[in-house]
Write a structure and sequence with these properties.
Helix content is about 15%, strand content about 55%. By secondary structure, it is of the alpha+beta class. It has one domain (about 5-75). It has a 3-stranded antiparallel sheet with strand order 2-1-3, with helices on one face. The longest helix has 12 residues, at about 40-55. It comes from bioreactor metagenome.
Length: about 80
């Protein structure tokens, strides 16, 4: 029985460094954008994330793309 993976959703997460806390540990802030079109290439998504980070007050630390798939049995 073969399993089919259908892409259900894609999200973009930007992680920012917002400074240090009282124990000198990094404070990380996240911004997540849902409904990213699956056809968008990683290069284009990366360039978009970098451009959006220029509008933020914190330093961009990491860019993450999440992909969700719905699994079903082949009939």
């Amino acid at each position: 029985m073969a399993v089919i993976a259908n892409q259900a959703d894609s999200k973009l997460k930007l992680v920012f460094n917002a400074g240090l806390d009282e124990e000198n540990k990094d404070i990380m802030k996240n911004k997540t954008f849902a409904n990213v079109k699956p056809a968008v290439t990683n290069d284009n998504l990366y360039n978009l994330a970098v451009s959006m980070s220029d509008l933020q007050s914190y330093t961009l630390s990491k860019i993450v793309r999440y992909e969700e798939y719905q699994l079903s049995n082949e009939i």
